[in-house]
């Protein structure tokens, strides 16, 4: 039996990075880490490599400061560096870094190359344009995806045929549509906020075909369940990366439920499918540049209007009562976008709150804020 | 209740005769005059945008960043930043941004501001259009989008993608250049559409030639600073950045720079150093980071008591366009080469900035790193440099500061660190 | 019918006893000095000649609200301050509460319901803790600060926004012989500017006269109020016992619960 079946919905807490890599490597296969939800995993999967998302964690940093890392960068970046510098990724064959933002991108690449002992046999920095929806940016990114594929082929010493790419896209699209179905079932009370979130988390670390089997089973089981009443405050979570499910759990503990999100560990990861009616690399370039919801880190022409529309669409689709922004300290782009999103939500009289997180979500104060928000929603305020 | 402003900061003593603030005032006065008459459109930019195109089309580039540095030097940035923070701006955000945001959001009408601006004739005229090329940080283009939203004017964004770390500057792949050129063409169309002005490639060749000349002169000045005693220090070079970031492509900048070069040559001939008369040049340091405009005295003058002078500044070099000469017969491609492959996007450029061999050429004894807590880019660069200095056993000191906001800065702490650094150098 | 509200804060625990919609008694005890919630409620009850058996309902609020086992309901201090302030001053639309650990700004609608709020970030600047640190550095009592600051003729600029830096600034001001009252005035302004930031982040439209109320212990500091008024440009109303507004709000909610 596969480890992933035994632990169907593992969250980052459950397994060490070694354990996650090992079971796949034991089959004589390779593992590649990636950092950002805007990374075209399909190409890696098509090469028979297991892509695993390295999210960082809220463990205290123990090693990285010895290497003089930037204390004024977000905890996600610092934590990823710490994990690597501690040698926890030593079983990984490769690491692919998207040029995500000013902190998480080139610097991580440099550090891995210079400072991580026995660095990765395959280390790649994928330049992603920070503007999208233009012909020239698509054209540029197509070339870069082609180069990435070439480098990977060189590393594997075998070609990745077009048919494998097309198959990978099919499997990934299936995963996306299953996750959407899970979100819809959550919206109707068949699945809890925590379970739906763990479905996304597990999809970022398990082989997608196996993931799909698990998600299908989850959906079948959910459908025969009695739905939970939807009276609780229904929350849309907005932000980027969360290390684990703590926030989802806290919201449920307090009587609310997360019904939608635009997180990098949520809908930003899977919402938009890849088109199947054209050349695979071209389709991937389009999807990864133009996908909704966009991330302000990588879309610096700031599609804040698009982001707002996406949030409003999700609020309507999942009948959410309020938006909770959970943003990382030192994440400039998300914080700048927030200013405008807050203005727009206020104009529409949609309740929201913002919470800045660093190593931990800061439960004590956040609890009070969330409870006060729920009191407002429930008319107690 | 009377109050006392007490930031305990000050201006640095300069060596050169050029009065930069006079040129800055003149620039702002002319921009305001043009705005009033409607004779020339104003385009806001973030720094290291291809403003040679603006000059070629008779558009006035204005840089809120440059404006923020001036506000820092005039000690009025904290008041503007407070306005920004009261409008919900998180305190961790870039101080340059907060300074401008506060200015837009009512700060320019503060009584304390009015005096300072009127006295120095520095008033930022409202933009007609805005543009940002993302080649430095990701906050830049979003900043300009916010400005566009505030003033309800059109915005244009360009992107310089990361060059793959293994790619050498001399072998940049075609698709990078093509992507750059195609964006510059789009920018030109954008300008034509929104200003009604016609673009002329020949005129651009001229401004590119001027810009190249300016870079060349700065390169020469930097070469002359290898001499002992160093003829001109960091306090001067940093303020000259104004010409590089705001006037690349203008005749005036070339004329001023030429004058400065002549003066520097003269000083070299007379073996006259940047240090005050009677002070022997004992230490040569390299200055890393954006200078604290609110306290240039601590950043540069303070070290003079140890006979130290800054002979090299990464900050100025990053703006100088040293990456090879521009070719006026291929102006668009030249601009792509100048602006798209700079240190934040190009590993080789970053290595050039911190090239130890190059540094040895300047005879540098150690590095003074001014770390900026609100700048992701500088704080990341400095963290990486520190790792490298440790590796090569090169002396350095880090001062935590902010480029314009003295509220995030403790002058005693910083001077204390500088003292310790120089005492150790002397040992 | 009698009800109680108890506000278990970081610094002090407060209790209010209501009987038929009127405040019968209240009590304030330092949390660290035996200020256990049930004891404080009992002390307040005894002032009103009542005992715990007389209470129909108890609501707890404040940071320690989950550790008040005898309370039938827990409500956040945000809602409670809103309810309490609106009860005392019906024109209240904005509440500023500078507490020991954090400061809050709460926006109410005409019915006195909370519509929006903001809390400061984890940093101590802009909270009561900042005042405490500075009082300690100046070697004066926290309570003295307000009155002393009114004597100031020349507010000193405390330029650092960081508590640690600011403390060393204060120490160097003391060393250079600057009068304490001027330093305190500067400290008040530094906090006021932080709190004003929070305030304006929740104010989009014009603020009406008599609509801004300050609650919490720091509201007793007259110098602080003055600085805040200067920063936000409008008069601030302080209820007679600003510390007990949260507990009062809790008691009012307890009363509503009984009629539900």
Write the layout of secondary structure elements.
The complex is a heterotrimer of chains A (381), B (427) and C (260).
Chain A: H1 3-6, H2 17-25, E1 31-34, H3 41-46, E2 50-53, H4 75-85, E3 94-98, H5 106-115, E4 122-126, H6 135-156, H7 162-187, H8 193-203, H9 208-223, E5 234-239, H10 246-253, E6 257-262, H11 267-270, H12 280-290, H13 304-317, E7 322-328, H14 332-347, E8 352-357, H15 363-377
Helix pairs in contact in A: 4-5, 6-12, 7-8, 7-9, 13-14
Chain B: E1 2-4, H1 20-37, E2 42-45, H2 51-56, E3 60-62, H3 64-73, H4 77-86, H5 95-104, H6 111-120, E4 129-134, H7 139-151, E5 155-159, H8 174-195, H9 201-224, H10 234-246, H11 251-269, E6 283-288, H12 296-301, E7 308-313, H13 314-319, H14 331-339, H15 347-353, H16 356-361, E8 366-372, H17 376-392, E9 396-401, H18 411-426
Parallel strand pairs in B: 2-3, 2-4, 4-5, 6-7, 6-8, 8-9
Helix pairs in contact in B: 3-5, 4-5, 8-14, 9-11, 9-14
Chain C: E1 2-8, E2 12-19, E3 22-30, H1 37-47, E4 55-61, E5 73-74, H2 77-88, E6 94-98, E7 103-108, E8 114-119, H3 128-138, H4 144-150, E9 154-156, H5 163-175, H6 180-201, E10 212-215, H7 222-232, H8 245-259
Parallel strand pairs in C: 1-4, 4-5, 6-10
Antiparallel strand pairs in C: 1-2, 2-3, 6-7, 7-8
Subunit structure (chain C): Homodimer.
Organism (chain C): Candidatus Methanolliviera hydrocarbonicum
Domain ATPase BadF/BadG/BcrA/BcrD type (chain C): 5-254
- Spans of chain C of at least 5 consecutive residues whose pLDDT stays below 50 are none
What summary fits the major beta sheet of chain C? 5 strands, mixed
Main sheet strand line-up of chain A = 2-1-3-4
- Helix content bin of chain C: 25-40%
End-to-end separation of chain A: 52 Å
CATH domain fold name of the domain at 14-159 in chain A: Rossmann fold
| Shape call of chain C | globular
CATH class designation of the largest domain in chain C:
Alpha Beta
Radius of gyration of chain A: 20 Å
How much of the sequence lies in strands of chain C comes to 15-25%
Provide the succession of SSEs of chain C: EEEHEEHEEEHHEHHEHH
- CATH class division of the domain at 14-159 in chain A: Alpha Beta
Proportion in β-strands of chain A: 5-15%
Helix content of chain A: 40-55%
User: What is the helix/strand order of chain A?
Assistant: HHEHEHEHEHHHHEHEHHHEHEH
The oligomerization state is: heterotrimer
What is the fold named in CATH at topology level of the largest domain in chain C?
A: Nucleotidyltransferase, domain 5
CATH superfamily membership of the largest domain in chain C: ATPase, nucleotide binding domain
């Amino acid at each position: 039996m596969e480890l992933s079946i035994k632990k169907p919905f593992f969250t980052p807490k459950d397994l060490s990075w070694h354990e996650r890599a090992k079971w796949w490597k034991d089959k004589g296969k390779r593992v590649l880490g990636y950092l950002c939800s805007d990374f075209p995993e399909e190409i890696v999967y098509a090469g028979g490599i297991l892509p695993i998302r390295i999210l960082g964690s809220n463990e205290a940093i123990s090693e990285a400061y010895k290497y003089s890392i930037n204390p004024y960068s977000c905890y996600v970046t610092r934590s990823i560096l710490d994990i690597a510098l501690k040698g926890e990724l030593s079983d990984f064959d490769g690491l692919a870094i998207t040029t995500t933002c000013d902190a998480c991108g080139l610097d991580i690449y440099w550090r891995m190359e210079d400072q991580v002992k026995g660095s990765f046999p395959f280390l790649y920095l994928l330049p992603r344009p920070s503007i999208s929806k233009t012909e020239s940016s698509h054209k540029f990114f197509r070339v870069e995806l082609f180069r990435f594929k070439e480098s990977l082929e060189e590393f594997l010493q075998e070609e990745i045929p077009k048919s494998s790419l097309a198959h990978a896209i099919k499997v990934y699209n299936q995963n996306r549509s299953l996750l959407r179905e899970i979100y819809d079932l959550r919206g109707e009370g068949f699945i809890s906020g925590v379970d739906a979130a763990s479905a996304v988390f597990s999809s970022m670390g398990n082989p997608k075909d196996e993931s799909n089997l698990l998600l299908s089973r989850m959906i079948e089981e959910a459908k025969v369940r009695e739905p939970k009443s939807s009276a609780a405050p229904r929350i849309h979570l907005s932000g980027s990366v969360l290390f684990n499910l703590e926030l989802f759990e806290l919201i449920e503990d307090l009587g609310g439920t997360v019904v939608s999100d635009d997180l990098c560990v949520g809908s930003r990861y899977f919402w938009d499918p890849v088109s199947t009616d054209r050349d695979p690399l071209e389709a991937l370039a389009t999807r990864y540049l133009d996908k909704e919801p966009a991330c302000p880190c990588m879309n610096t022409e700031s599609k804040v209007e698009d982001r707002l529309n996406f949030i409003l669409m999700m609020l309507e689709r999942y009948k959410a009562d309020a938006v909770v922004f959970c943003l990382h300290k030192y994440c400039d782009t998300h914080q700048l976008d927030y200013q405008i999103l807050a203005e727009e939500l206020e104009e529409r009289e949609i309740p929201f709150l913002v919470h800045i997180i660093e190593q931990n979500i800061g439960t004590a104060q956040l609890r009070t804020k969330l409870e006060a928000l729920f009191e407002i929603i429930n008319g107690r305020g | 209740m009377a109050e006392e402003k007490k930031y305990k900061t000050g201006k640095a003593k300069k060596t050169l005769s050029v009065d930069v603030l006079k040129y800055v005032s003149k620039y702002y006065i002319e921009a305001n005059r043009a705005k009033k008459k409607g004779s020339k459109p104003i385009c806001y930019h973030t720094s290291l945008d291809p403003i040679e195109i603006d000059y070629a089309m008779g558009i006035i580039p204005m840089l809120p960043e440059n404006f923020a540095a001036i506000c820092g030097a005039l000690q009025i940035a904290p008041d503007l930043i407070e306005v920004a923070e009261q409008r919900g701006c998180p305190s961790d955000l870039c101080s340059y941004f907060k300074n401008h945001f506060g200015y837009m959001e009512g700060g320019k009408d503060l009584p304390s501001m009015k005096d300072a601006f009127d006295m120095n004739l520095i008033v930022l005229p409202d933009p007609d259009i805005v543009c940002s090329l993302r080649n430095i940080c990701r906050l830049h283009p979003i900043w300009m989008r916010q400005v566009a939203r505030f003033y309800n004017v059109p915005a244009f964004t360009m992107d310089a993608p990361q060059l793959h770390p293994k790619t050498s500057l001399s072998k940049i792949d075609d698709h990078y250049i093509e992507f750059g050129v195609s964006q510059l063409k789009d920018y030109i169309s954008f300008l034509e559409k929104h200003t009604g002005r016609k673009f002329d490639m020949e005129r651009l060749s001229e401004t590119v030639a001027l810009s190249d000349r300016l870079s060349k002169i700065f390169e020469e000045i930097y070469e002359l600073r290898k001499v002992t005693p160093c003829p001109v220090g960091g306090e001067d070079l940093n303020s000259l950045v104004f010409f590089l970031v705001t006037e690349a492509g203008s005749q005036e900048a070339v004329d001023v720079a030429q004058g400065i070069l002549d003066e520097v040559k003269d000083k070299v001939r007379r073996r006259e150093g940047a240090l005050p008369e009677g002070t022997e040049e004992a230490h040569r340091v390299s200055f890393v980071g954006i200078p604290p405009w609110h306290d240039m005295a601590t950043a540069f003058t303070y070290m003079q008591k140890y006979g130290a002078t800054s002979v090299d500044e990464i900050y100025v070099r990053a703006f100088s366009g040293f990456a090879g000469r521009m070719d006026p017969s291929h102006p668009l491609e030249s601009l792509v080469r100048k602006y798209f492959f700079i240190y934040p996007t190009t590993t080789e450029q970053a290595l050039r900035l911190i090239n130890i061999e190059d540094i040895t050429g300047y005879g540098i004894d150690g590095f003074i790193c001014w770390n900026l807590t609100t700048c992701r880019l500088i704080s990341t660069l400095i963290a990486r440099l520190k790792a490298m200095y440790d590796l090569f056993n090169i002396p350095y000191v880090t001062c935590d500061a902010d480029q314009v906001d003295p509220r995030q800065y403790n002058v005693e702490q910083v001077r204390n660190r500088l003292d310790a650094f120089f005492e150790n150098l002397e040992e | 019918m009698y009800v109680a509200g108890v506000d278990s804060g970081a610094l002090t625990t407060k209790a209010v006893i209501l009987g038929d919609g009127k405040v019968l008694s209240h009590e304030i005890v330092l949390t660290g000095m035996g200020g256990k919630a049930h004891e404080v409620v009992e002390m307040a009850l005894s002032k009103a000649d009542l005992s715990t058996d007389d209470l129909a309902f108890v609501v707890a609020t404040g940071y320690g609200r989950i550790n008040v086992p005898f309370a039938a309901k827990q409500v956040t201090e945000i809602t409670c301050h809103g309810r309490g302030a609106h009860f005392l001053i019906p024109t209240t639309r904005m509440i500023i509460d500078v507490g020991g650990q954090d400061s809050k700004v709460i926006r109410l609608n005409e019915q006195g319901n909370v519509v929006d709020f903001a809390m400061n970030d984890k940093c101590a600047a802009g909270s009561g803790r900042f005042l405490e640190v500075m009082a300690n550095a100046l070697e004066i009592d926290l309570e003295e600060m307000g009155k002393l600051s009114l004597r100031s003729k020349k507010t000193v600029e405390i330029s650092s926004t960081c508590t640690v830096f600011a403390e060393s600034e204060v120490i160097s001001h003391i060393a250079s012989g600057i009068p304490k009252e001027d330093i305190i005035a500067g400290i008040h302004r530094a906090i006021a500017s932080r709190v004003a930031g929070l305030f304006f982040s929740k104010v989009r439209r014009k603020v009406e006269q008599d609509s801004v109320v300050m609650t919490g212990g720091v509201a007793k500091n007259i110098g602080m109020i003055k600085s805040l008024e200067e920063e936000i440009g409008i008069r601030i109303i302080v209820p007679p016992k600003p510390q007990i507004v949260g507990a009062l709000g809790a008691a009012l909610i307890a009363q509503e619960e009984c009629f539900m």
